[in-house]
């Protein structure tokens, strides 16, 4: 019996050349189809939960396992990021950190300092739409765009980690893997923060916006990002085999990098928001 996929003479349950399972007509039964479908869901669920747990509880270990060849228990980096990305944008209703409504851009600083009000007025004059009509179009566009362009953070952070830790002599793809898991953590952190902090605060205080809360919340997120980055760098870019002075220098540099990542975190997001704003204004 030959393998249905590659034609190899199949002597085992799985083809040793391409991995295809040995075929028989019983696999076309309703029972087998149902069992295979159920098994697929359970297998995906187990992998996702295991990957999620490892990402949250052991910073850097997920990236380390993947680059060292321990991959069977976890989802692939991009696959995992895609799932987290979909869950983040699907389960957070309304505005989120990455897709703000037009009202934010024409009302609050620092947006208005970039002449966003003038840009919107020019757009209204050019299209003949009312502000209410354009708000609806803009808000729909930014929700869709924010899901697609969130990927730019992965190569962006990959370049940052690669440049700041270049002496570790890792391939660029290894930095990308680390950045992919880092961004997955960021999305999960903001998802948890939204439902465990922001929503309860709004329900309890009945406030639409509080500068004090926004400052405290932003500072807390930045601190968590910095701490997670530090622990992840120590694990992934490990230097346990190096001499003690060099190891101490590594830890010191890791602290500096982590503080920089935490401090600039919202600055990068602000740049991303403005990128989306100008894209929608000029290309839609």
Your description of this structure?
- With 284 residues, the protein is mostly helical.
- The protein has 2 domains: 1-57; 76-283, no CATH class.
- 70% of the residues lie in helices and 0% in strands.
- The chain has 10 helices and no strands.
- The longest helix is centred in the C-terminal third of the chain and has 40 residues, at 244-283.
- The termini are far apart.
Judged by helices, strands and strand pairing, the structural class is: mainly alpha
Count of all domains: 2
Largest β-sheet summary: none
Shape: globular
Q: Fraction of residues in helices?
A: over 70%
How many beta-strand segments? 0
The SSE order reads HHHHHHHHHH
Report strand %: under 5%
Mean of pLDDT: 86
Cα end-to-end separation? 57 Å
Q: What radius of gyration results from the CA coordinates?
A: 24 Å
Poorly predicted ranges (pLDDT <50, ≥5 residues)?
A: none
What is the count of helical runs?
10
């Amino acid at each position: 019996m030959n393998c249905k996929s590659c034609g190899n003479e199949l002597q085992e349950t799985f083809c040793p050349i391409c991995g295809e399972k040995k075929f028989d007509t019983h696999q076309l039964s309703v029972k087998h189809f149902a069992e295979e479908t159920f098994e697929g869901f359970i297998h995906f669920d187990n992998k996702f939960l295991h990957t999620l747990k490892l990402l949250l509880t052991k910073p850097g270990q997920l990236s380390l396992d993947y680059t060292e060849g321990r991959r069977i228990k976890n989802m692939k980096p991009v696959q995992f990021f895609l799932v987290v990305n979909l869950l983040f944008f699907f389960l957070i209703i309304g505005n989120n950190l990455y897709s703000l409504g037009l009202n934010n851009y024409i009302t609050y600083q620092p947006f208005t300092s970039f002449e966003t009000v003038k840009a919107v007025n020019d757009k209204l004059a050019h299209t003949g739409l009312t502000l209410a009509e354009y708000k609806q179009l803009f808000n729909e566009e930014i929700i869709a765009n924010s899901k697609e362009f969130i990927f730019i953070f992965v190569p962006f952070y990959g370049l940052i980690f690669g440049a700041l830790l270049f002496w570790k002599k890792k391939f660029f793809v290894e930095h990308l893997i680390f950045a992919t898991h880092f961004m997955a953590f960021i999305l999960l952190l903001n998802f948890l923060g939204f439902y465990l902090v922001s929503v309860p605060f709004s329900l309890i205080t009945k406030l639409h916006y509080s500068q004090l809360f926004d400052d405290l919340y932003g500072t807390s997120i930045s601190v968590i990002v910095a701490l997670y980055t530090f622990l992840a760098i120590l694990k992934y870019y490990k230097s346990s085999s190096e001499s003690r002075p060099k190891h101490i220098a590594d830890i010191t540099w890791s602290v500096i990098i982590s503080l920089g990542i935490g401090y600039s975190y919202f600055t990068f997001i602000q740049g991303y928001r403005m990128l989306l704003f100008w894209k929608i204004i000029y290309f839609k």
